[in-house]
Amino acid sequence: MSTKIHETACVDPGANIGEGTSIWHFCHIMKDTHIGENSSLGQNCFVAAGVRIGSNCKIQNNVSLYTGVTLEDDVFCGPSMVFTNVKTPRCAHPRNNPETDYRPTLVKRGASIGANATILSGITIGEHALIGAGAVVTKDVPPYALILGIPGTQQGYACECGEILTPQNNTAICPICSRSYQLEDGQFQLTSVG
């Protein structure tokens, strides 16, 4: 198993790319990045200095990951979705100091972000959350939450397998994979694997 880097991609010295990862056409990977094993970056992706991408992530075409963004393992980023890293950008008053100006964004294990969604800086997206296409996420997202709309609001829950769940009496069983969930104190939690 080897790393695949397309000849049109630019990978700066100091980038760390794991085994089995594929970097496709016209991507730019900057120094001091870390990309885990078996991940895939589609055409025209940009990964800024200091970004961390876990293993088995799939980043579709035209996604830019700016300094401050961290993706844990098994994260999906749909085509042309957007991460930001500065709350109040200004050209005449640059905010380019990674230690004071960039707000960290964390996407936890197994979360999926749909095409053309926008994730504002400083957000944490919980494990296995599902962000719908075109949503604008302005606040933290709990684990397993289904987020839709502008601004993004929670419209339900998603199973680890991606099926949309509708809890009844604070419990849900996935009709596809039979995982069981319990809703406790507003948090959705996995209770058993079918």
Descriptive account of the structure:
This protein is an all-beta fold and about 190 residues long. The chain has one domain: Hexapeptide repeat proteins (UDP N-Acetylglucosamine Acyltransferase, domain 1), CATH 2.160.10.10. The protein has no helices and 26 strands. A 10-stranded mixed sheet has the order 1-4-7-10-13-16-19-21-22-23, with no helix packed on it. The chain has a 6-stranded parallel sheet with strand order 3-6-9-12-15-18, with no helix packed on it. A hairpin with a 6-residue loop joins β24 and β25. The model has no long low-confidence stretch (mean pLDDT about 95).
Chain-wise SSE layout:
Elements: E1 4-5, E2 10-11, E3 16-17, E4 22-23, E5 28-29, E6 34-35, E7 40-41, E8 46-47, E9 52-53, E10 58-59, E11 64-65, E12 69-71, E13 76-77, E14 82-83, E15 105-107, E16 112-113, E17 118-119, E18 124-125, E19 130-131, E20 136-137, E21 145-148, E22 153-158, E23 164-165, E24 171-173, E25 180-184, E26 187-192
Parallel strand pairs: 1-4, 2-5, 3-6, 4-7, 5-8, 6-9, 7-10, 8-11, 9-12, 10-13, 12-15, 13-16, 14-17, 15-18, 16-19, 17-20, 19-21
Antiparallel strand pairs: 21-22, 22-23, 24-25, 25-26
